[in-house]
Design brief:
Blueprint (H helix, E strand, L loop, with lengths): L15 H8 L2 E2 L2 E2 L3 E7 L17 H8 L2 E7 L5 H10 L3 H4 L20 H6 L4 E6 L18 E4 L11 E3 L2 E4 L4 H18 L5 E6 L21 H22 L6 E7 L21 H4 E7 L8 E3 L3 E2 L3 H8 L15 H5 L10 E5 L2 E7 L2 E9 L9 E12 L15 H15 L4 H11 L3 E3 L6 E3 L3
Parallel strand pairs: 3-9, 3-10, 4-12, 4-13, 5-6, 5-9
Antiparallel strand pairs: 1-2, 4-11, 6-7, 7-8, 10-11, 14-15, 15-16, 16-17, 18-19
Helix pairs in contact: 6-7
Length: 462
């Protein structure tokens, strides 16, 4: 059984792939770490890009995938906005960070100052840092990007369907409300400007779009452009934006020294497509947490690479810190360095099971090709209107290599795999805060039986 422990980051020059790239990446004769651009869509589904099978035209992202690596099995650590972003920036599960639900406009809490973002780590290595777009990790001044490792900020503090909605530069409100139809273009202008202004020093740009989260607001240029409705129009505009940022990188002569990543924060909401996957935003089925992931760095990441190895948003902090020669924070990380996957040096990595949380509730875990479901949210008849996390009457095991749709449950055929994953889940859970441990105990302490039709769980009476 694997025990949880802090990640020991590989030395940047320790692998042949990184060493070969670093040796030719120089300014003024000194080895330089790469510039990093991390582009995050909001509520974009696994099946919403052309290179993932969509009919929506996404030529820039498709080209980016053809010039870099496309992952088939990349996960975020929550099916919801705020906790997903917290884990992406910190490399730690939302339950460790303490953000397990969607923060609201009036909330006075946010990302704790005991957590270190990847931006703060990169600043220690001399990076200039900027956050553009949706933050959603606390709207009070002490939680905003300028207090979490970013030198500059331009964007909105939470989702665009929340009110009041301010557009901010730094800690100052410059418009309220902004015109949502022009916001993607304005974000893109800011991103291009930051790349141009930062070309003489290493930089980290975290570009977190507000779309395609509702309300959908494609600009006049893209309205009806797809012929498939406003959602597809919005995705086309995100593709255009990515193309504009990549062009700015080329125009400033930084193409061979800039890592560009594109992914999403969780699965699709009311619109959008999870592709073949089961589930959507808010669910721990694959469609809620498996996301598109594309990365490009000419000369280091081979063109046209396809990676089926398991990787997660938790891995970005340790990976980017490794590339930047930046020390990792004191808090132990749940992610691992996935640079060998990005370069094709390895097809998979040994790692602890990946845990699927819904709030504080641990519901599933993936180990290799196997995913085990142990609990699920439900509306039982004895608590009308309430959603309760209930243990499944029978644990469900899925072979995600053969069955990514989670259609064919096979626990009875592999009892040893079920037992192994369940034991690892419980072992890892013991390292989490008491709220997660107590939620597990509460769930597993519920005794339920199902009706003959299997439609509703009925609580057993002691």
């Amino acid at each position: 059984m694997v025990s949880w422990s802090p990640v020991n980051r590989r030395e940047f020059l320790g692998s042949a792939a990184t060493g070969a790239w670093a040796g030719r990446s120089r300014r003024d004769g000194a080895l330089q770490p790469p510039n990093i651009i991390l582009i995050l869509a909001d509520d974009l589904g696994y099946g919403d890009l052309g290179c993932y099978g969509a009919k929506i035209p996404t030529p820039n992202l498709d080209r980016m995938a053809s010039e870099g690596v496309r992952f088939s099995d990349f996960y975020v650590a929550s099916p919801l906005c705020s906790p997903s972003r917290a884990s992406l920036l910190t490399g730690r599960y939302p339950a460790r960070v303490g953000i397990t639900g969607v923060l609201q406009a009036a909330d006075t809490c946010g990302l704790p100052d005991t957590e270190t973002t990847v931006a703060a780590s990169l600043k220690t290595a001399g990076y200039r840092t900027m956050c553009i777009g949706k933050w959603h990790l606390g709207s009070q001044p002490q939680f905003l990007p300028l207090n979490r490792g970013f030198d500059e900020y331009f964007g909105i503090p939470y989702s665009s369907d929340m009110w009041p909605l301010p557009l901010m530069r730094g800690n100052n409100v410059i418009e309220q409300p902004p015109n949502l139809e022009t916001l993607t273009a304005r974000y893109t202008d800011e991103a291009v400007s930051f790349v141009q202004r930062s070309k003489d020093s290493p930089f980290f740009l975290y570009f977190a779009h507000s779309l395609p989260h509702l309300p959908l607001a494609p600009s006049n240029r893209f309205r009806c452009a797809s012929g498939q409705g406003p959602y597809s129009d919005t995705v086309m505009e995100l593709d255009w934006s990515t193309g504009a940022v990549l062009q700015a990188v080329r125009d400033t002569g930084l193409d061979s020294n800039t890592l560009v990543i594109f992914t999403s924060d969780n699965g699709p909401w009311y619109q959008g497509s999870p592709g073949r996957l089961r589930g959507r935003k808010g669910e721990t089925f694959e469609g809620g947490m498996r996301e598109p992931f594309i990365a490009r760095l000419p000369g280091a990441i081979p063109a046209g690479l396809e990676c089926a190895g398991l990787a997660t948003a938790l891995d970005l902090h340790p990976t980017l810190a490794g590339l930047a020669h930046a020390p990792l924070p004191a808090n132990p990380m749940d992610g691992v360095d996935i640079w060998p996957l990005l370069t094709g040096a390895q097809q998979k990595l040994d790692r602890d099971p990946f845990l699927y949380f819904d709030g504080w509730n641990l519901q599933c875990a993936r180990l290799g090709q196997w995913k085990l479901h142990v609990s699920r949210m439900n509306r039982p008849p004895w608590t009308p209107g309430d959603i309760v996390n209930l243990p499944l009457p029978r644990q469900e095991l899925y072979d995600l290599r053969a069955d990514p749709e989670e259609s064919y449950e096979c626990a009875a055929d592999h009892p040893e795999i079920v037992s192994d994953i369940r034991g690892r889940m419980e072992n890892l859970l013991n390292t989490f805060p008491s709220a997660a441990v107590n939620a597990w105990r509460d769930t597993m302490g519920r005794q339920v039986e199902y009706t003959p039709a299997g439609a509703w769980p009925i609580e057993k009476k002691s």
